[in-house]
Amino acid sequence: MITTSDLTKVYRSRGREVTALDGVSLHVRPGEVYGVIGRSGAGKSTLIRCLNLLERPTSGTVTVDGQDLTALAGSGNRAPRPLRLARSGIGMIFQHFNLLSSRTVQGNVELPLEILGLSRRDRARKALELLDLVGLADKAGVYPARLSGGQKQRVGIARALAGDPKVLLSDEATSALDPETTRSVLSLLRDLNEQLGLTVLLITHEMDVVKAVCDSAALMEKGRIVESGAVSDLLATPGSRLARELFPVGGDLSAGDRTVVDITFHGESTGRPVISRLSRAYDVDVSILGAAMDTVGGRQVGRMRIELPGRAEDNVVPIGFLREQGLTVELPGDPPAGRADVVELSGEGA
Ligand SMILES: Nc1ncnc2c1ncn2[C@@H]1O[C@H](COP(=O)(O)OP(=O)(O)OP(=O)(O)O)[C@@H](O)[C@H]1O
Ligand SMILES: [Mg+2]
Questions:
Q1: Residues with C-beta atoms within 5 A of ion ligand 2
Q2: What residue stretches are annotated with the ABC transporter domain (predicted)?
Q3: Is residue 218 domain-shared with residue 258, that is, in the same domain?
Q4: Sheet-wide strand order for 16-28
Q5: Distance of CA 35 from the midpoint of ligand 1 (Å)
Q6: Which ligand is nearest to the CA of 9?
Q7: Domain contains 344
Q8: What value, to the nearest 5°, has the Cα angle with vertex 77 and ends 75 and 83?
Q9: 52 C-alpha vs ligand 2 centroid, how far in Å?
Q10: Domain count of the chain?
Q11: Are residues 303 and 231 in the same domain?
Q12: Whether residue 178 sits in one domain with residue 49
């Protein structure tokens, strides 16, 4: 649904050059919720502004719903009509909502409909329908100043849906909200994704957001995507940084005659009493150093850091047993030689 190939963006200001995007190739499948995560300055907002051509990329292409947007002339808010039309198929929501304080809730949702040239009656009907969809039917005549942050973001979402977009882009839409409101806005996005078949690309710096709603995720660093793929695949991939950050296990890597083992439970293995079986079958004392369990996409997954007596060489058999149980097993005290810098897991071309 969204494909970028080799997207770069170089900002030039006062003789200095900043490479905000450095060869970003991204593939978001129709109907998925895709999270892009990364530190401040990684290039996330630049990526989203290049996706809808609010900014023109320096090179590379952006295709949304089969249309090459980079082939259309213009950029920014005053783009020519073909680009503006293409853009009406892409909704956008923002961290600070960007509502007009002089207009009522309904007036804010009607704004893009005015630009699309709908009659007053059609605008009102559509706006009320959208407000109902986001659970704010009773707030149509209220001004934004009288709304909570979560309600403002719902108005922002209703406005973004005005042009019946197939794609919704979200730049840190929940970072100004408290955890509970965040959860309710995320579950609204998930509902819209399911009900309307909407493809959602969301940018966040919060791992919890990825855990709560994303089917796939990409990690950005210094303008590049360093890891990407379906969340369930990432969890099953030894060495995945996203998996580690999603499920930080904690627990020291104690030295000496001990072997520290990180195991990731996913799929069927989650329900099995693997640790007690290990302990019984090999008569070993297993210490649990840290663990994190959660639900991702409605399924239980988790990671656990355990410690076995003896060195890694002495534990080849119990470690093999864990692998046979379908768990992903890593020895964090024993970094693999020459691990690839870039882990590419997404089903490319899908
Ligand atoms: N208009 C601009 N002119 C010059 N440099 C810019 C411009 N916009 C962004 N940059 C630079 O590009 C880099 C990426 O910025 P960007 O806003 O995309 O980061 P981000 O990942 O969204 O960060 P944050 O999490 O803080 O929002 C930064 O080094 C930033 O200073
Ligand atoms: Mg940003």
A1: 45
A2: 2-247
A3: no
A4: 16-28, 2-13, 59-64, 67-68
A5: 18
A6: 1
A7: no
A8: 50
A9: 15
A10: 2
A11: no
A12: yes
